[in-house]
């Protein structure tokens, strides 16, 4: 450490994670730090918003959450060692700005501020303004012992011994920044295409086609997709929704309500999108209601005692056998608590009787199925995660028209359910998923899962199901999808979509739907999977190439693609040694995290993790620490 008690840390990444870390450093400094700390915040994009939430993006793009469900501030529910400094949710902040007359609001956001409501999905630019305000507030509230220096630049390398200063080289700065610690808060990793994607790209070049590999949608140049061109789209989640918006409204199309039905009027500049995926259906719409009864006391079955018992077992853990039954039972308990409490007229047993029998039965056992059938007469009122996950399982269709009609019905039913507070039990399950997510992270961190359970079940199925059920698009987006289908701008391929190059074109189909779709373009509508080996970020690549940062490889040689970290987030090098001077945090590290904003009053794992990292930084840098 410096002799004058002045130390420094570089935080690479100034998006929500990076500025959230700065807030936690500032909050914990009075307790843990006795010197002077300089925080160098490094990002070529604006601090607060960062790359994903930058203001300079299409005003047509929305958030995927309602304003009342988004916050950058800890509240009393967060169980962490650091102090809680509460503040407004996005909804509360917007209401305060509106009440104050909108002073300081960008001109092109005034109309949105005037109409903002806690349950009205906002644009990403409104969230960008909130994040900018949050960051400016963090700077205003810094204790005297902490200062923040912003570098609108790209970190391209870090060198230095584990026991000494770290030199951070920036793309636009001649001299490196010399700091005492480095924290990587860089979010999702951009990667080079996989070998299979490279082959598709080469095929496209050879045949004058267009191929778009997985990427963050708003960063993609879509100008090569021509009006009227048949474009195959592989992916039916949130990346697809952004793609849909940018290629329709973004090209001058417009929606109008005619006779109670949303109608799309094309501009003539849209391509024709043929969409498919493994499920063959879009993500479930976000619920438009709140719970109508107190939330179930969770965790109950997948609780701390159960986790302690599981992680103490001598044999490796299997997700489906050991974890999912407890998780599903907790999620189901949250669902049925809301159903029995808020909608007792749709149940046949006294709730205490149901509770006792439910607690005694194993998940998915004949006893539990019989209990639910007896207590909940309507099938649509029963919690069925398998049916939710695979709504088209076992179905085949005589032609594409029949499949389109079925998919329209599926989407319409989902929209009606997610807008009807009579189905508020779905919100119970939604919140139960959030609790299980946090509990599962503790089991993952224990290292007790088999490699297959870790990669195929947790990183694969669980994250996919969580996103599909709990992180779907706003309902209006699915109404727009139906309008686009009726207008002939989009069509649907089917479940278990396959794509192959054939005859100088891209060809797609589904085993459940007769016929094939032929296109001159193929878009992979999803974010790339984690891959340290193929990461294009210059800092990650430099550390990787020297063996100072490695991809997580599990027993048996299976790789997760994630950055290997231990303890609070220390980087691990190729020799298996941790570096206490370098910490990484975020969704592409081996300590899994949801790539979403923390929800208020949920003891959000993201807040707990950020607080722990901040405290580790301060304790390691404190000049008086032995």
UniProtKB/TrEMBL annotation:
<dbReference type="Pfam" id="PF13454">
    <property type="entry name" value="NAD_binding_9"/>
</dbReference>
<dbReference type="InterPro" id="IPR036188">
    <property type="entry name" value="FAD/NAD-bd_sf"/>
</dbReference>
<dbReference type="InterPro" id="IPR052189">
    <property type="entry name" value="L-asp_N-monooxygenase_NS-form"/>
</dbReference>
<dbReference type="InterPro" id="IPR038732">
    <property type="entry name" value="HpyO/CreE_NAD-binding"/>
</dbReference>
<protein>
    <submittedName>
        <fullName>Nitrogen regulatory protein P-II</fullName>
    </submittedName>
</protein>
<feature type="domain" description="FAD-dependent urate hydroxylase HpyO/Asp monooxygenase CreE-like FAD/NAD(P)-binding">
    <location>
        <begin position="10"/>
        <end position="188"/>
    </location>
</feature>
